[in-house]
Amino acid sequence: MDWNEATISSRQTSAKRNVGRRFLAVLIKYRYRYLLIAPGLLYVLLFRYGPMYGIIVAFQNYNGFKGISGSEWVGFKWFLTFFNGPDFWHLMRNTLVISLMKISFGMAPDIVMAVLLNEARSRWFKRSVQTLTYMPHFLSWIIIYGIVLAFLSTSSGLVNHWLKDSGFNPVPFLTSNEWFRWILVFTDIWKDLGWGAIIYLAAIAAIDPQLYEAAVMDGANKARQMWHITLPGIRNIFILMLTLRLGNVLDAGFTQIFAMYNPLVYDSVDIIDTWVYRAGIIENRVGLATAVGLFKSVIGLILVISANRVAKKFDSQIW
What does the UniProt keyword field contain (predicted)? Predict the structure, then answer.
């Protein structure tokens, strides 16, 4: 029995050494590649994983003078405070409604734009449209809000000037709960239309041209080619983009909303992230804000995993 144990131990030690040698050999062989990705990997470790230590604050009555190590532990107090608070369902409703509106109305325009650009025969026209639709992606939401204000302001907006000149009453687009969600949705579509189209154009470019040639030989027109070749060809990219969007469904676009909203539209656009900002930064309830942020991250992770599994399960049934 002792001899068998010694043999097994020796084999395990030998296997570990072999694994270590192979690992070292791979590092030496691909050393330049690892050096190339080292800065990005270091960035992720320092600024993505390093701050996760602060998650502990979600379970503490955090005191800035005592620090994380000296603050009092309160368990799940802040989670229960948020779940039982008067704002929970209101914030969840606004966050989900805005996110689902953006997903529902924001994905189709990208695909339509990509398909239309792919069918364009004039190269200069195609490039011009791509450039014009892609440029807003680089604008900050502050600049975009300035543009929206110039068009939709109640007192000085071009649209309301036109309405007044036409004999209609001005519409308070930026202070109306009925209009503001739609403004968020359409400005989000306008800003990222070119970016989404480029992603789908890259997917379309990867489709085998012989499929189109065979379809032409069979007498298929452009509409049938798009329906039976182009759309199925970008199916995987669509699934990927949808999965990523579902994973961020509790984000709803904090930067956009924070730059554009005002107290008059809190009832329809106050989301989890804006509430966390006020609770954590303005009201200094750090533990509560961290707990809510952690809750949102966990839900996002669950949604990404679930959406990915559902997409794989029903992949063959989508088209």
Answer: Membrane, Transmembrane, Transmembrane helix, Transport
Supply the range of the domain harboring residue 24: 2-73
| Cβ contact 197:113 at 8 Å | yes
Looking at the fold, whether 120 and 229 belong to one and the same domain comes out as yes
CA atoms of 188 and 186, how far apart (whole Å): 5
**66 and 100 share a domain?**
no
CB atoms near residue 264 (< 10 Å)? 13
From the list 228, 207, 204, 240, the residue with the least C-alpha distance to 312 is 240
- Whether 89 and 35 map to the same domain: the answer is no
Number of H helices, E strands in the chain: 17, 2
Q: What is the pLDDT of residue 93?
A: 92
- Report the candidate in 166, 165, 142, 162 with the shortest Cα–Cα distance to residue 153: 162
Assigned token pair, 174: 């930026």
Interatomic CA distance for residues 150 and 159, integer angstroms = 9
Is the same domain home to 286 and 142?
yes
Structural domain count, the chain: 2
Compute how many other C-beta atoms are within 10 angstroms of the C-beta atom of residue 223. Answer: 8
Q: What is the pLDDT of residues 128-168, one digit of tens each?
A: 888 888 888 888 999 999 999 999 888 888 998 898 888 88
